[in-house]
Protein: Coenzyme A biosynthesis bifunctional protein CoaBC
Amino acid sequence: MSTNSTTPAAALDERRPKVVLGVAGGIAAYKAAELLRRFTESGHDVTVVPTAAALEFVGAPTWAALSGKEIATGVFENITEVPHVRIGQQADLVVVAPATANTLARAAHGLAEDLLSNVLLTARCPVVFAPAMHTEMWEHPATQANVATLRERGNIVIEPAEGRLTGKDTGKGRLPEPAEIFELARAVLAHGGRADLVGRRVVVSAGGTREYLDPVRYLGNRSSGLQGYAIARAAAARGAEVTLVAANVTLPDPAGLKVVRVGTTAELRDAVVSAAEGADAVVMAAAPADFRPTGVSEAKIKKAADGSAPTIELMQNPDILAEISHHRTKPGQVVVGFAAETGDETGSVIELATAKLKRKGCDLLVVNDVSGGAVFGSEVNKAVILGADGGHVDVAEGAKSALAEVIWDQISLRLDEQPAN
Structure:
């Protein structure tokens, strides 16, 4: 089966998607200005709906200047246009950032006390909440119950980031970076707000491992982590609880994910095996080094005076994909591998990948033809997705985020046969 060359993102370009940016009254409201700028500069039609408390932090002139629209703050303003109904009805996406504990509570209980809460009641489009509050408020059972209620209804509630809060406090409750909220919101728009991974726990690995020769040198590969991050972000946008195991990746943490950073293949193996315990799906997009030196020099290896090169003895690393494929920790767990192939005298790219799929024992294998260094570090990708059941999906060249959506489409087809946690 082949995918259509027109991606959902391309279809969105035919008109300006209407986005409602709700801003609640927290100190992180100033970050929403950056989020608004990203939406408007990328061609979205944005209506800002701040609460009265939000205007105490950032005034209406700022929102009006950045959005190019007058700001409505009350249900009785421009009453003939019925803003408390029309704004939500016409939206393609609603993003509330920051979403305070109060806003989450009102949304969960269906209260309609101001314009933003009315918009949330009338919206029939995807809704993304980006919470920001002190750790104690986020962890309170009432807040957690409200978050669970919103998620059960198909809303996307991003996990807050950890870091500096107001004053001297640090902990979980920080608003994720605007750039990452924006990327997640774009992913939600791209697939129409499909929340088919709500209640699912998934693990994604990304990047490339390094095997050290001495304190400054290592054996590695060219994996940038871009594809793995796109896959993780897409899963979060569909409502999954995501653990991202990142090997030597310099990209910023995607919004709403648990990120585990590793360096070597052994560390990657331990982190993935641990995170995969009871997970519904594991996507091994990382590129582990196949070999490592039998020993690591404690001091930098020096050049020999006679110009000779040192001999480095290698040993094989553990096969992580084969291990998690053959020792699954949950019935129905879907395991996805990646194959970067070039083809050689023993077979074509697809022939080698088909043999690898059978050998590894995974359910799906995403095959990249990397002849000439293609794919690595690029913003675009094309692939063939092979299934252990004989499936074959050709994905035309496009953004790595588009390939990520196709991968989750294929995973979801298999997860549909299994109940969520």
About this structure: The chain has two domains: 8-190, 201-298+307-415. The domain at 201-298+307-415 is CATH 3.40.50.10300 (Rossmann fold). Residues 1-13 have pLDDT under 50 and may be disordered. The first strand starts at residue 18 and ends at 23.
